[in-house]
Amino acid sequence: MLKVGSVQLATNLLLAPIAGYCDLAFRTICREQGGLGLACTDLLSPQGLLRGTATSLDLAQTNDFDRPVGMQLYGADPAIMADGARWARDHGATIIDINMGCPVDKVCKKDGGSKLLCIPDTAAGVVAAVVAAVGDTTPVTCKMRLGWYDDQPVAEWLAPKLVAAGARMVTIHGRTTQQKFQGQVNIEGIRRVVEAVKSRFAEIPVIGNGDVTEPEHVVAMMERTGCDGVMIGRGALSAPWIFRDAWALQTTGIVPRQPERPEILAIMRRYFDLMREYRGDHYAMFQIRRRVSWFVKRFRGPCKAFREEVRVATDAAAVYAAMEGYERAEFAAVAGDRGEAETGDLVGAAAG
Ligand SMILES: Cc1cc2nc3c(=O)[nH]c(=O)nc-3n(C[C@H](O)[C@H](O)[C@H](O)COP(=O)(O)O)c2cc1C
User: Is 193 helix (H, G, I), strand (E, B) or coil?
Assistant: First the structure.
């Protein structure tokens, strides 16, 4: 079973930080579906946390159900990162993760994110400072890419250096900064990082990450790279139950029955309710409008009109009405209204 320093995880499956998507509401629905061992906040600015800016505090929102949770910090100043880590520890973080993968200019031009891959001594210094600040109680982990340039695989020698500085887990996204999110994940690159860490620090978990969208991909990632666990990002946005499925596959060899449309709608409704509760209607409306297309990816049958109805909704009542209409249409289809369901639009059928 996967252990990160002193923290025992219930499974070896992790929800990736996806800035703007993996908020407390989304982490909650993933946890409710089961199988999730560790979730993480979006990347957080330690300065923002220390100053108490509203954006940073919103992003760091957590609660007792949201455990264990990693809070991910970015930056290159050891003292500020250490202060940010103390703040995160005191505000609910089970684990402090240091971002060494973000390719965005705004982060890299201040030497944060994946720029740390280019300044290894600074990267190790940040880890050492954060470990010194919180390491006894709160394990420190690093999430990194393979390197900055495609032809310079830095992570395979930097990862052991970070562990030597005190990191208790390494997550490796199998792409370089140059690649951003293009192309396929480099499985061999991940395998080399796993091997490099394990050859010196057998007890340190290494997590593979990239392009895992089905439970079978989790098993393949582990078999092909030797990693201890798998982190899933985009694959969870359309299937927050992927952790349950991947855990079932690992432990029983069977993937559970996939949720039907009414169950997916119930998860979507719950997500909307939680966002309203945690962040208010304005935020919930913004998110549900852009997230609806992720949820409908797994729907079978026509869903264009439903998606549009949610996208143009101007208030929460309109979102609920769209969901109810779509659910009624599903019920009508099951009850035998096959002609409408198969050839026409389900929301239109329900409204008619
Ligand atoms: C929109 C977007 C935002 C992301 N934000 C973060 C972030 O805040 N911190 C981080 O470490 N990685 C971030 N990532 C990278 C993901 O955590 C993950 O490494 C990457 O998407 C590959 O995994 P996947 O194929 O399972 O999505 C982001 C990725 C995307 C697409």
Answer: helix
